[in-house]
Amino acid sequence: MATKKELQARTRDDYPYMLDYRTRWADNDMYDHMNNSVYNYLFDSVINAFLIEHCGLHPPSSPWHPLMAHTAVHYFSAIEYPKVAELGLRISKLGNSAVTYEVGLFEKGGGKDSKVKAVGEFVHVWVERRTQRPSPQGMDPGLRAGLEGLRDGKISNKKSLAAKL
User: Fold this and answer.
1) Residues 6 or more apart from 30 whose CB is under 8 A from it?
2) What is the superkingdom listed in this entry's lineage (predicted)?
C-alpha cells in the first residue's frame, strides 16, 4: 500500500471508476459519524458492483469467485448522515490469481479538490468454485480483461450505488 502521505493526497482523478452512496441514518454510530464497519461494507460493494458490471461475475453461479485475503483502511476524516459518499475504485496490483484494489471515499459536494476521507485496500485471491484453489492457469480471461481495463484506465463509470443497495 502507498504511504499515508500518498494516500491523503488522493483525488477523485486517481480513481477511474466511481459510484455514489447516500448515507443512511443507520450508518451513523453513537459518535455521530459513519461507523467503521460501514466503510468496509461500502468498499466491498463498489468492488463487487465493478466485478458484476465489467468482469462477468455472477456470484451465485460463476465457476470462480474471490476469497478475501487482506483488508486495511486508513481513516483521515469522518463522514456522517445525511451526506453522500463518492467511492472511487482502482487496481494497485494485478497478479496471476490475486488482485489488490484501492478504494477512496470522498464526500460529494465537497468540490473536485476536496480531501479523501478514507482509503481502503482489499486483496482478493480468485479460486475455482469446485476446488476452492487458484487455477494453475491463473484467473478467468474475462475477469482479467475487466481488471486490466480498470487498472489501465480504459473502464470508467460514474453512477449511483444508492439505487443498488
Assistant:
1) none
2) Eukaryota
Domain housing 143:
4-160
Is residue 165 situated within a structural domain?
A: no
Q: Tell me the C-alpha distance between 127 and 112, whole Å.
A: 38
Tell me the helix, strand and coil percentages in the chain, rounded to 5: 25, 35, 40
What is the structure's pLDDT at 98? 98
Question: How many domains does the chain contain in total?
Answer: 1
Query: Residue 16, preceding bond cis, omega within 30 degrees?
Result: no
pLDDT value at residue 138: 94
Task: Name beta bridge partners: 37.
Answer: none
Question: Given pLDDT bands bounded at 50, 70 and 90, which one contains residue 15?
Answer: very high
**Alpha-carbon distance 39 to 16, whole Å?**
19
- Contacts of 45 by beta carbon, 8 Å cutoff, 6+ apart: 19, 21, 87, 161, 164, 165
| Cis preceding linkage at 63, omega within 30 | no
Round to whole Å and give the CA distance between 22 and 126: 30
78-113 burial, b for 16+ CB within 10 Å, e for fewer?
A: ebeeebbbbbbbbbeebeebbbbbbbbbbbeebeee
Q: What is the residue whose three cell numbers read 477511474?
A: 16
pTM value is 0.91
